[in-house]
């Protein structure tokens, strides 16, 4: 699915990160140890680094990862589901971390790609302000 070792490494790092995190982290968020481990597992030499892929290639890689993991990448839908889950949980919970955990569980149950933490944090804060 890729034409260079750098792109293969990038694709596999995105796959492994998305499997664990439920989202695509920014390149700066990925620890070098993770990249090194994936590189070693692929049998690539140390001079192969994470490619800064073209926008089109990045979209293709993310589409491949989403298809492989069965993830829905619709962020508007993910925000809507998270908002609904947080509103419902706010009836019995008031700690933002609890509200965010409920949202994450609902997103995982619906095979949604997770939005950024700041999005969930903002949703929890907004519900807290409306409820309070």
UniProtKB/TrEMBL annotation:
<protein>
    <submittedName>
        <fullName>Uncharacterized protein DUF4158</fullName>
    </submittedName>
</protein>
<dbReference type="InterPro" id="IPR025296">
    <property type="entry name" value="DUF4158"/>
</dbReference>
<dbReference type="Pfam" id="PF13700">
    <property type="entry name" value="DUF4158"/>
</dbReference>
<feature type="domain" description="DUF4158">
    <location>
        <begin position="4"/>
        <end position="127"/>
    </location>
</feature>
